[in-house]
Amino acid sequence: MTELKISKIRKSYGNLEVIKGVDLDVNKGEFVVFVGPSGCGKSTLLRMIAGLEDITEGELWIGDDLCNDIHPGDRGIAMVFQSYALYPHMTVGDNIGFNLKISGYSKEVREQKIQSAAQVLQIEHLLKRKPSQLSGGQRQRVAIGRAIVREPQVFLFDEPLSNLDAALRVEMRMELAELHRKLGATIIYVTHDQVEAMTLADKIVVLDAGIVQQVGKPIDLYQRPSNLFVAGFIGSPK
Ligand code: ADP
Ligand code: MG
Question: How far, in whole angstroms, is CA 182 from its chain's centroid?
């Protein structure tokens, strides 16, 4: 079942076209990874899906809704940023529950949702701390927790592990795969790291210069790259 559909999407900044006609179907529960070199348009595409950038041309469908002009908060989507973007003066618990407060949930319901997200992410013991008292990996879990409590249909991740050291990146990668299994959610995940893409994805979308080069299962891209760019990018060791 299709959860999200992108049709002939284009994005220009002034005269500069950075997304040049992208089509994509994302199925419910699928882990889709956008991969490609720096500057190829991965974040721009993700931000258009989130509603943080206007779509210059084309259509974005989420379920049965044409979402081009739907407010970011009403798209059933939650985004996790590379920078974590936590509020430094708030505790971990308040960071996780902040959007729920804005949405008007009672304190009781908020506490309940914060607890269950913290349990999934194994950060229950950190709820009273401030972000400055956490490691990079713990901060990233809090940022993910803030997305989980909103119970979105679709999670968007923009290079969530790129600020972590190599060992922690591997650990968090496994945790993200586990989280995907637990939540059964649809995930769209951006990385420039082909190893990350190969290990996490049900479906990989290889982008270069604002154009989709190939879409497929990791194994298909590896064994049957459709062009030299894909072959070089997926095949090259990190
Ligand atoms: P990626 O995430 O793959 O590294 P981006 O989506 O951030 O790439 O950027 C794609 C292209 O769009 C780049 O050439 C970048 O310089 C350009 N770009 C991104 N945001 C803006 C903006 N707000 N104004 C002008 N150009 C932008
Ligand atoms: Mg980016």
Answer: 16
